[in-house]
Design brief:
Blueprint (H helix, E strand, L loop, with lengths): L1 E5 L5 E7 L2 H4 L5 H15 L58 H17 L3 E4 L9 H11 L6 E5 L4 H7 L5 E5 L5 H6 L2 E5 L2 H9 L1
Parallel strand pairs: 1-3, 3-6, 4-5, 4-6
Antiparallel strand pairs: 1-2
Helix pairs in contact: 2-3, 4-5
Length: 208
């Protein structure tokens, strides 16, 4: 698949690039994408939710009433889950939601996600550029020139750029990441995938 390379002015640079068919034109595996998204979201969870059980609730341990003769059910503690203010039965406890996912399956998922973007023609290849200043207004101008200022966009860079990251972090619809940290969730969540020209080599190396 051949794509025209644009510059930051939103115009053609006069060059074209051919996307790697082994990455951008594979048979999509929806289940692999599902697992990769689930894995990514699970790793983002803090897992710090905690509810007190009956042994942890503050309260007296004396028997509330005598065992027999009241005409009501037996009750041994005010901290019972049956009473208001009592402990929680099977409540959440701190845990790690992460699970193992094979490296090969991750690659299959990410190739599939990139293939979907290529099929929908939602990939923009951008000529290499450098942000001299970390100014949000300059980054906004680039988005407007590319015609994606009102859409969710994901920028893939060949290497870390502090200025570009700082310029984009106050824009809710734009995300900037390095190509070696690509994942299915962010790719599928974006309406437009903006790949800096040099980042294509990184993607080829990372997902080959």
């Amino acid at each position: 698949m051949s794509i025209e390379i644009q510059n930051i002015e939103g115009k053609s640079s006069g060059k074209k690039v051919t996307l790697n068919n082994d990455i951008f034109a594979v048979e999509p595996n929806d289940h692999a994408i599902y697992l990769d998204v689930k894995w990514y979201l699970a790793r983002r969870r803090q897992g710090t939710s905690k509810a007190k059980e009956r042994a942890e609730v503050t309260g007296s341990t004396r028997k509330i009433k005598k065992q027999k003769g009241t005409g009501t059910a037996r009750a041994g503690s005010i901290k019972s889950p049956l009473f208001k203010g009592g402990g929680t039965v099977f409540g959440p406890a701190p845990r790690d939601y992460d699970f193992k996912m094979n490296r090969k399956l991750k690659k299959v998922a990410r190739r599939s996600a990139l293939t979907y973007k290529a099929q929908k023609e939602d990939i923009i290849v951008l000529e290499d550029f450098v942000m001299k200043d970390a100014k949000t207004k300059d980054f906004k101008i680039i988005l407007e020139k590319l015609g994606i200022d009102s859409e969710k966009s994901l920028f893939l860079l060949p290497e870390k750029s502090d200025n570009l990251y700082l310029a984009s972090r106050n824009i809710p619809n734009a995300m900037v990441v390095t190509a070696d940290s690509i994942n299915s969730y962010e790719v599928m969540n974006a309406n437009k995938l903006v790949v800096v020209e040099s980042a294509l080599k990184t993607i080829d190396t990372y997902l080959a």
